[in-house]
Batch of 3 targets.
Target 1
Amino acid sequence: METIVKFERDRREILKIAGAAAVYGALVAAGMARPGAARAQGAWNQGAFASKSLADVVKAYGGAGAEPTSEVAWGSTPEIAENGAVVPISVTSRIPNTESIAILIEKNPSALAARFQFPQGTDPMVSTRVKIGQSSNVHALIKTADGKFYVATREVKVTLGGCGG
Amino acid sequence: MADPMRIRASMQGDKVLVRVLMSHEMETGQRKDESGNIVPAHFIQSVTASHNGKPVLSAEWGPAVSKNPFLQFQFAGGKLGDKIQIIWTDNKGDTRTDEAIVS
């Protein structure tokens, strides 16, 4: 049953993308967009980005829960960030068959900051910079190819908030 | 049209290390201007990277990614002279495509 529900969701995603592609095709025809950009039209998971908690983000990606793991290296991620507007985050997963890594900031208005997907051949590691409004737990949410979710958590203290502008 | 990205792709042993700096406001939609009006959200939502046309990374972002986003990742199977292409699209439908050669 769960599979059917998931399939239905996937089907709707596909239809949504197909719809976007049709609009996009028209734009290309009208000379308003460049064909190369089509690949950037991935599905943006609105539900996930509206989620307030780790549990809701996991749900938005079709999972039931995430198992805590210590198989994550945080690289240059600071424990104390002076400027919350630009906090370097670096995550490396040592979990075999890591398919995606999502970065969540627990106390931000929306928990999910970014999610990265790694095709075969790309190392399950990513560095970026995020805004952190106030001292918060930062989660690295990992999904493996067999659909399991794992989470590693680290506290980042912020001396100057990053969401005020 | 947004400013070009700065893309550096270099061989690190047998892997290609890719570093990207994008030029974007990444406005959260939470901030108010001087007259107290909410500044509408404007942020990159999707990023894809390809190596000689084959996808090597895709990302979906929210407004919590910092202004002028930075991205670093690495992949196997590349060599000097290969082409790296990065594409982003934001929530207003603006998009930008840039390329670099592995050096």
Target 2
Amino acid sequence: MKLPIYLDNHATTPLDPRVLDAMMPYLTTKFGNAASRNHSFGWEAEEAVERARKQIADLIGAQPKEIVFTSGATESNNLAIKGVAEMYAERGNHIITVATEHKAVLDTCKKLEKHGCQVTYLPVDQEGLIDLDRLRRAITDKTILISVMYANNEIGVIQPIAEIGKIAKERGVLFHTDAVQAVGKIPVNVIRDNIDLMSLSGHKIYGPKGVGALYVRRKNPRVQLTAQMDGGGHERGMRSGTLNVPGIVGLGAACEICQREMPEEMVRLARLRDRLKDKLLNELPEVYVNGSLKHRLPNNLNVSFAYVEGESLLMGINDVAVSSGSACTSATLEPSYVLKALGAGDELAHSSIRFGIGRFNTEEEIDYVGEKVVSVVNKLRELSPLWEMHREGVDLSKVEWTAH
Amino acid sequence: MAYSNKVLDHYNNPRNVGSLDKTDPNVGTGMVGAPECGDVMKLQVKVNPETGIIEDARFKTFGCGSAIASSSLATEWLKGKTVDEALTIKNTDIVNELSLPPVKIHCSVLAEDAIKAAIEDYKKKQANGAARPVAQALS
């Protein structure tokens, strides 16, 4: 077993060597521009791009022509939301999204609010799920778009996407989903789920960074977008810019591997995740799983170790790469807004650790991490005045703290 | 973010972890911070009432590595100082000693506040203790 152990696969994933093999020719000899129509260099690049388009479409139940290549999911989210808001401005200006979305969606919506859009941010329950009745009630005759993420990047909670798609279709509202964490990990099908627009990313599925895609439905309904990047009219005019051929080839290869290996990999990941969860919950008191365990990605575990601060825990397990919802680990010095949205209280957000298990993790690694976390949590609790008070029977919620 | 060697040393080998009897009239207890802010420090001093010298200091901290290091360092510095000398410890001294980056300055501020709170608690106890016989005499 090699240290450090990488267990932060929601942040990014290592490139699968098979993906690199597929990309290599397009980084070296096959360097053509896919838009060059009159020589073999261009043709072979175009062929590779079209093959990748099909590999991606096959994974999500779409048609190849419905795939628009981008630089990543942040761009896909921007293009989907801003593109719809601009294109359908005459029909309405209301967008519905969720408090626990990724910043690429939330900040895009906030920008649109400055330009006259109305945005409803649906809350989530303790499990991290939205209330479908609340969604129904939020729709008005001005609503043009519902944007709800497929699976959350912090807590791995899977929203009721098929039900949301059905509601959107019934009400004639477009439905976009940021499916970065779900695509390639669990079965995703844009037809079954009535998805109109869907963002995905290469580097979350063992593909390269700097490439992503947006699924844009072409039938029932035909979705139109106002381009956010103008230029040579690539990607049917929706996204100009010379195609990142090696990246696209890598994204395609990554999708194909995910599709082929998903049935077994989902079971393997869930088994490793549950092994880690059982270890932590059986050996430590006062450990809480954040978000629904039932509606959850197989590779995600997000837990709060009460009375222990997250960054200090990360420091103690410095040969394990994970992340925390603690304020001290964020650039904004605010605890995770996703965990806060669950309503569990800021203190549990400060104490949270996200484990993201991936394709290359082994049972031996999971066991090492479990042992290590248990021993560091025990050590830090001995250091914790809150743990001491808890043990003395003090109700911490009734203490008057000197906030600073 | 990389931690300084001194922060790592205090985190890995925290000095003077523990609790003193908070009902002891010679023990002053300071507890600052809040769980929802992500850090709570409890700092205690045991003072020799004859000499005014801090003979023992203990801490427990819920917080990041820098908060743990700041309070651990504070206990080291407090021992052997008089109560008045203890009050001259400034957060900037802690920042310099531990090479804390700007985002961690609040940890040092918290440690300074904890020292002040502990000393204040000790002084209050002493004042009350001195007053008690008088009160008894009146009753």
Target 3
Amino acid sequence: MPAFDVRWVERWQNMVNQDSVARLLGRHFNADVMLEFGPHAYVVSFEHGAIGRVQHEIGPESAYQFALRAPAETWAKFVQPVPPPMYNDIIAMSHTLHGRLKIEGDVKVMWQNLRALAWALDLMRAVKE
Amino acid sequence: MAKIEPVTGHYVHVPFEGEEYRIFYEESGHGIPLVCLHTAGTDSREWRHQLNDPEISERFHVIAFDLPRHGKSIPPKGWWKEEYKLTAKFYADLVVAFCRELGLERPVVMGSSMGGNICLHLAQRYSDYFRALIAIEACDYSPGWWLDWLWHAQIHGGEACATAINGLMAPQSPFEYRQETWWYYSQGGPGIFKGDLYFYSVDHDFREDCEKISGKIPIFFMTGVYDFACTPEMTQKTAKKVRNAECIIMEDIGHFPMSENPVTFKKYLMPVLHKIK
């Protein structure tokens, strides 16, 4: 299972920032997103589709617009090169039938940027340990 | 020499519930009419691979039409005055009206997603008319999709609707075909995907009605393992309650078999088509 530690998230950040499609789809994607991988939580700041900043010291003053929260085991399935059924997508994992991922906060911002967000999250599958 | 497909398009005017619907359809082949129903919020382009498959069209007259408000079928008069909500009654009756207007004799209906779910209603209400039903990604109840976010002035409907369904496709399906399916979804009219999902997730609740199907005609249920909206378990549970039903679970494919992976889909579809005489 990936560590989902700071180094892993930074490697993902680099993948996103080097991806031309992420920048194309996310040219208006500016949002602070809380990503919770079980015990590991980060606020990831998207700036025009790139990830400008990753905050890993999360406290009561940490602000974000929306959050994606799931156990590390769930994310571990999501990031597999060929993810198993029901774990291949955040809409799948959060669907009312499955409830493996919680989406909270200003969900409208997520829906406004869903294409760019999903593309960026899919790049997690290319992160090397 | 120009590469021209053996698929032709037509418009037929279908009188229905006091309206005259101008409906677009594509067709190919000869033989048993095989009417293909598209999924929610999109149109008949999803069936282009099956329309072009000579092994299918040598025995079947393949017809794929756009529901009113979808693709090239224009909405009814005054469409802008009220929220669009597809109902089981309208959908089932319109499919039958379309088939009868074309004079189709004992057609087979093959539909996916909401086109699969409507097969249950067709089986219950029109078992004397149809020859067989192929209900793809279908079950008796599929909640959770009638969402305001899918029709919202501050959200790009095309991108949001298309991305919402993206994960319904299997990672094994060719990326290009998944992107093509995404493309179709990005082109639905405002509120149309959501309005179709009113049928899919709200009006279609067949849980108490499965046993009422007579079993006069065969129903083939076919569901892909990556379908998180209608899981294989949901289809299996439904098929067990329906007389004269066969349940086929398809590996390495999701909610849009015909468009996301026509090669894998064909492996499962051909044995079904061979059973239909």
